[in-house]
């Protein structure tokens, strides 16, 4: 394949997806030639030979490498900037998105999602590397992903990042100012990123797909302002307001406190997508009557964490009920269960991880009660994976895990293989951190070459189930459930 044919095919993609118009073609070619370190051209077939954008990306990157135009450690930035040549401008994408939206929200999101994959903003190849399996529990099927999609930074890139002068622009990874940002140091490559501007309850937000998606059409809603996460009535209204515009998506927010929140608390954002999580499939364990909100039905979800599911056709009442529950939870303590709203220094410890969806014509809000207290025995968090589970998972239990999808660290890919060897009494390099767990498994299971892989995956699933139990404030046992009812009684009494 001639290099010029690859370039021509790449330009054909740009023409097809509306990045350029026929009048721009010569201009675009010349810009691209320079970018690839070329200054010559030979006419080739106008009919595209290759239509796969990622295959063309590989071919063009090979040309660039041959011409030595990619600076050391800058591959990631160069690659995104290359894909920018086939990414329409924000104004064009926003215009087309909202035109298609007039037909239906689905037509609009499908357009944007396909485009995001074509230009490698959603990194489908990297995502495909993840290892995924499921584990059946009494709460339903939990899902487990060993996250291999974020490539390890190569040492050259790390070295280059160290030399970069610190800058506060963009203020963080979630700021809208990242759109089209070339990237430098640890600030990711965003040349090919595009954001749809959305208005929710009068506030400006940006909607984009997550580069390393954990679930179908995993998207992020970013506040136009760099301001901290906050779970309050406004957040509930925003989640429900988003559903009015995108009724087929679910949307949730990480909690707004350390330990129980996500990794970025400094920039207000939510996560959405077209996906039914295990928790959404879980049914109600019991119905609860909310005295002050007759139009809102409520129940305890059959889930290892403590979840109240509110449902109503009346969005205003639903949001008010959620707000009341939040405010009551923020001041509620039950010292017998180590649940403490406020510590002596005045720090508040209670918040909620909320998830919203529309089901059978009603708005639904799952409110997951969170408590971020620590103790001498559990310095990382009382309602956080306990130390015995840290060999599998020690990171925060954020929104995605709460909903029953474990995102486990990449190290487990090789570590679990060593555990398997150990269980088969083969020579192995199993890390010491897995030994107590592996010893326990040896006591209860018989392992053969045929079964060991599946048994280990099942055991990882059990660990994840226990992780969720540890994160639950009212445990799924008699004492815990009694505590849950006492909280509900507290909710049903008016504030004194
Ligand atoms: Zn920011």
TrEMBL record:
<dbReference type="InterPro" id="IPR005850">
    <property type="entry name" value="GalP_Utransf_C"/>
</dbReference>
<keyword id="KW-0119">Carbohydrate metabolism</keyword>
<keyword id="KW-0963">Cytoplasm</keyword>
<dbReference type="GO" id="GO:0006012">
    <property type="term" value="P:galactose metabolic process"/>
</dbReference>
<dbReference type="GO" id="GO:0008108">
    <property type="term" value="F:UDP-glucose:hexose-1-phosphate uridylyltransferase activity"/>
</dbReference>
<dbReference type="Pfam" id="PF01087">
    <property type="entry name" value="GalP_UDP_transf"/>
</dbReference>
<dbReference type="InterPro" id="IPR000766">
    <property type="entry name" value="GalP_uridyl_Trfase_II"/>
</dbReference>
<feature type="domain" description="Galactose-1-phosphate uridyl transferase N-terminal">
    <location>
        <begin position="19"/>
        <end position="228"/>
    </location>
</feature>
<dbReference type="Pfam" id="PF02744">
    <property type="entry name" value="GalP_UDP_tr_C"/>
</dbReference>
<keyword id="KW-0299">Galactose metabolism</keyword>
<dbReference type="InterPro" id="IPR023425">
    <property type="entry name" value="GalP_uridyl_Trfase_II_CS"/>
</dbReference>
<keyword id="KW-0808">Transferase</keyword>
<dbReference type="InterPro" id="IPR005849">
    <property type="entry name" value="GalP_Utransf_N"/>
</dbReference>
<feature type="domain" description="Galactose-1-phosphate uridyl transferase C-terminal">
    <location>
        <begin position="244"/>
        <end position="438"/>
    </location>
</feature>
<comment type="similarity">
    <text>Belongs to the galactose-1-phosphate uridylyltransferase type 2 family.</text>
</comment>
<comment type="pathway">
    <text>Carbohydrate metabolism; galactose metabolism.</text>
</comment>
<protein>
    <recommendedName>
        <fullName>Galactose-1-phosphate uridylyltransferase</fullName>
        <ecNumber>2.7.7.12</ecNumber>
    </recommendedName>
</protein>
<dbReference type="GO" id="GO:0005737">
    <property type="term" value="C:cytoplasm"/>
</dbReference>
<keyword id="KW-0548">Nucleotidyltransferase</keyword>
């Amino acid at each position: 394949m001639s290099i010029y044919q690859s370039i021509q095919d790449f330009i054909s993609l740009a023409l097809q997806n509306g990045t350029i118009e026929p009048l721009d073609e010569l201009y675009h070619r010349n810009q691209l030639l320079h970018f690839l370190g070329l200054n010559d051209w030979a006419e080739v077939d106008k009919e595209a030979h290759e239509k796969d954008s990622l295959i063309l990306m590989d071919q063009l990157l090979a040309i660039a490498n041959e011409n030595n135009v990619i600076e050391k450690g800058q591959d990631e930035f160069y690659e995104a900037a290359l894909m920018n040549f086939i990414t329409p401008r924000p104004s064009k994408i926003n215009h087309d998105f909202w035109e298609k939206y007039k037909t239906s929200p689905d037509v609009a999101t499908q357009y944007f999602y396909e485009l995001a994959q074509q230009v490698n903003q959603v990194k489908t190849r990297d995502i495909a590397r993840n290892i995924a399996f499921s584990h059946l529990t009494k709460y339903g099927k939990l899902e487990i992903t060993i996250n291999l999609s974020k490539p390890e930074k190569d040492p050259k890139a790390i070295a280059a990042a160290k030399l970069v002068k610190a800058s506060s622009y963009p203020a963080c990874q979630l700021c809208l100012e990242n759109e089209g940002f070339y990237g430098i140091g640890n600030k990711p490559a965003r040349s090919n990123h595009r954001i749809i501007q959305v208005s929710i309850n009068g506030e400006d937000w940006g909607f984009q797909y997550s580069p390393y998606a954990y679930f179908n059409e995993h998207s992020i809603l970013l506040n136009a302002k760099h301001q901290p996460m906050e779970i309050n009535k406004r957040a509930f209204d925003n989640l429900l307001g988003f559903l009015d515009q995108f009724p087929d998506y679910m949307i949730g927010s990480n909690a707004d406190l350390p330990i129980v929140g996500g990794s970025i608390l400094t920039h207000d954002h939510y996560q959405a997508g077209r996906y039914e999580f295990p928790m959404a499939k879980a049914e109600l364990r019991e119905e609860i009557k909310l005295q002050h909100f007759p139009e809102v039905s409520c129940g305890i979800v059959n889930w290892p964490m403590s979840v109240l599911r509110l449902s109503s056709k009346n969005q205003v009442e639903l949001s008010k009920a959620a707000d009341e529950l939040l405010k009551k939870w923020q001041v509620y303590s039950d010292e017998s269960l180590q649940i403490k709203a406020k510590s002596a220094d005045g720090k508040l410890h209670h918040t909620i991880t909320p998830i919203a969806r529309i089901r059978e014509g009603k708005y639904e809000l799952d409110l997951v009660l969170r408590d971020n207290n620590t103790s001498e025995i559990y310095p990382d968090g009382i309602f956080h994976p306990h130390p015995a589970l840290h060999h599998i998972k020690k990171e925060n239990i954020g929104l995605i895990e709460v909903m029953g999808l474990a995102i486990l660290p990449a190290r487990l890919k090789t570590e679990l293989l060593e555990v398997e060897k150990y269980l088969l009494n083969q020579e192995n390099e199993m890390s010491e951190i897995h030994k107590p767990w592996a010893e326990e498994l040896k006591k209860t299971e018989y392992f053969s070459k045929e079964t060991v892989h599946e048994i280990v995956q099942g055991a990882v699933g059990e660990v994840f189930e226990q992780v969720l139990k540890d994160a639950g404030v009212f445990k799924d046992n008699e004492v815990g459930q009694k505590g849950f009812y006492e909280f509900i009684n507290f909710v049903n009494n008016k504030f004194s």
